[in-house]
Write a structure and sequence with these properties.
Layout (H helix, E strand, L loop, with lengths): L11 H10 L1 H20 L15 H25 L8 H4 L3 H28 L22 H24 L14 H22 L9 H39 L2 H14 L12 H29 L3 H7 L1 H16 L4
Length: 343
């Protein structure tokens, strides 16, 4: 049975108390605080990462990370407020019986690990960066140049491995509704998409370097659509299908808790970025810092995407509200313009 935080009748105070009692929330909070302490103990003045797009000291990044967490939590509250009067679909009922759900979840996780390993081997064999959910240089920038062949192969591999193959397999047994691929409230979904997109875009403009003012008219005309399509294929659709269409309903079925499902959705989204080009695993200290910052960077956005999916039953909502346009098109267009030498 889904936890009481799903109850529309619950008051805000009761909802917060229910969340605080959730073991998954407690464990996540403790691990988050522990990770902050680890960074302050292990890192010197500067982190060992190649982050030209987001410069700053290690303390600056810890502060920024926690501000991003608060922003993400506020976004989740906003999503819950905007959907409080909606009839929310029962995602757990869209998953099969418990035994089948457990088996499918184990197989999906094993398949995801295999896809990541193949992506690592393929990228390295071709002399490129390993293939994870982000193209090298995404969001944080990178000093290493990425060529068109690497970018297109990355997008094609991710689309095939995390979207096409899983969708073909599961579509034989489950309907589009069971896979969270259709809307039960188009007007409500559209309103939610517009509000979240506007708020998230405003946050991006206020906190990070965006595409505004960085490109020529031709680069805007060609680069923005190219960025949108490249990341739609290589990052957005793979995450949507693998995590939010397939894993999230099964997490909810297995745990019976919306809060735990949100955390697990964030964890799954984070782990798909394990090969991000900025990570450093050449020493134990750098490896620990890399793992910590993978979760610092991706856990909160992954949880926001899960909340959007759980509250609407539509995996497409997060695509347009909180992924394809902001951040990727908004932030990564200059990178794509450089990759494809668009002048």
């Amino acid at each position: 049975m889904v936890s009481q935080i799903e109850s529309r009748a619950a008051t805000p105070g009761a909802t917060l108390r229910a969340l605080a009692r959730q073991r998954s929330v407690q464990v996540t909070a403790v691990l988050w605080v522990t990770a902050n302490v680890l960074v302050l103990l292990l890192a010197g003045r500067n982190l060992p990462f190649d982050w030209p797009g987001v410069p700053g000291t290690s303390v600056d990044h810890v502060i920024g990370t926690n501000l991003a967490l608060l922003t993400g939590l506020a976004m989740m509250v906003l999503v819950c407020a905007l959907t409080r009067r909606r009839d929310r679909p029962d995602l757990a009922a869209r998953a099969p019986d418990l035994a089948t759900t457990r088996r499918e979840t184990v197989l999906l996780v094993a398949y995801g690990v295999l896809a990541l390993m193949v992506g690592f081997a393929l990228g390295r064999a071709l002399g490129w960066h390993p293939f994870g959910l982000h193209l090298a240089g995404s969001v944080v920038g990178a000093h290493d140049h990425v060529g068109p062949a690497e970018a297109l192969t990355w997008a094609g591999y991710n689309l095939l491995a995390y979207a096409v193959v899983p969708l073909v397999v599961f579509r034989r047994r489950y309907s589009a509704e069971q896979l969270n691929l259709v809307s039960s409230d188009r007007r409500g979904d559209a309103r939610l998409i517009v509000v979240v997109l506007l708020v998230e875009s405003a946050i991006q403009f206020a906190t990070v370097s965006t595409v505004v003012g960085q490109l020529s008219p031709r680069q805007y005309l060609v680069g923005l659509p190219a960025t949108f399509l490249l990341y739609l294929a290589g990052a957005v659709l793979p995450a949507m299908v693998f995590v939010y269409a397939l894993l999230v309903p099964r997490f909810l079925k297995l745990t019976g808790s919306a809060a735990t499902t949100v955390v697990l959705g964030g964890v799954a989204y984070t782990l798909l970025h394990v090969w991000d080009a900025w990570t450093v695993f050449t020493s134990p200290t750098d490896a620990v810092l890399s793992v910590v910052f993978l979760f610092f960077v991706y856990l909160t956005p992954g949880m926001v995407k899960t909340v959007l999916t759980v509250r609407t039953g539509n995996a497409w909502v997060h695509v347009w509200a909180y992924h394809a346009l902001a951040p990727h098109t908004l932030i990564d267009a200059p990178h794509v313009v450089d990759v494809f030498r668009i002048r």
